[in-house]
Amino acid sequence: MPTPSPFSRRIGSERVAGTRESVIREMTREAHEHDAINLSQGIPDEDETPASVKAAAKEAIDTSSQYTITWGLPELREAVSERYAEWKGVRYDPETEVTVTTGTSEAVVSTLLALCDPGDGVIYFEPTYESYIPAVQFAGGEPIPLDITDGLELDADALWNAAEDASMLILNHPHNPTGNVFSPAELELVAEVAEAEDLVVVTDEIYEHIVYADDYVSPVEIDGLAGRTVVCTGLSKTYSVTGWRVGFALAPEPLSAELRKVHDYTSICAPTPFQRAGVEALSLPADYYDDLSKSYERRGELLYDGLRAVGLDPVKPDGAYYMLTRYPGDADDAEFAHRLVREAGVAVVPGSSFYTEGSADWVRFTFSRNEATIEEALRRLGENRFW
Predict the structure, then answer these.
(1) Fewest CB atoms less than 10 Å from the CB: which of 47, 143, 164, 306?
(2) pTM above 0.90?
(3) Distance set, CA 269 to CA 71, 75, 273 (Å)
(4) What is the pLDDT of residues 199-219, one digit of tens each?
């Protein structure tokens, strides 16, 4: 039985009221409990990490066990600056405009805590990555969700109206959970609205190298956006090191100076050996990124065709490694997801976890796993259909 609370008052602050464990991580636990294949959390298989990057981390453990400068290892910040100038055409000063964080999630939360005052409106697009919702709450912001489920397109009128009451906008590009890539025209709309309403833009670009759309551009490549944007990204997805927790926040100096205050007193610094390995990761040749994207595109095709073959209705993504999938029947999304993990041995995420409130009629699969794992998951789905 639960231990009775010794407190006579309510436990827990207003900033955490109503929040609960991440549904994504809950479904990972369900996968472990039921010996299911985990297609819920975006975890690559161990053989995906480049060998030279793992070797650099192992070597660094013998020589790099202490704190770095809180903003990050100078060599890593320099490498980040050089690569982003090459990739995006935007030069960030490694001394004042590049901050190494404990994962991309910390970069997002530190930015919101530093730049959002209580009551400030924060726009985000739903379905949205689930951590943005509590992050806005922790910062005391007023959530302004805009639903793009139908068509996965930005509505100009809705965005203009929402921006009147906002001070910040969160943009995930490529988009989790849908795999959507916003068009250059949509990003130009965001830039126009942000300038007119003086918004700070926070872009989560952790899937920036996992893209299948021909017209993909980074938001900071759009005129007017780089000067008011905090880019949050990192090593996790590009180099298949999700457990290393090395992220980056790139922003003009006035914005960086503020988010560094939160980072300094929460994380101190990201894990030192993995920062050193990050220097090696960022030295990989250009064809590494081409091969990465092509590999995930093949896996996405495999999952897409397989889900259709077992009677489900997936939406083909333009980036990232997730697949929004509708299912037949009247079960709600949580019920369907829990039956899937327990009866078919495949774990997915119920779609409602990507909305501020309400239910959804879809679930999210990931194809971050290797082809053999995806094929086994499809075999299980085909043999254990209950829908």
Answers:
(1) 47
(2) yes
(3) 7, 14, 11
(4) 999 999 999 999 999 999 999
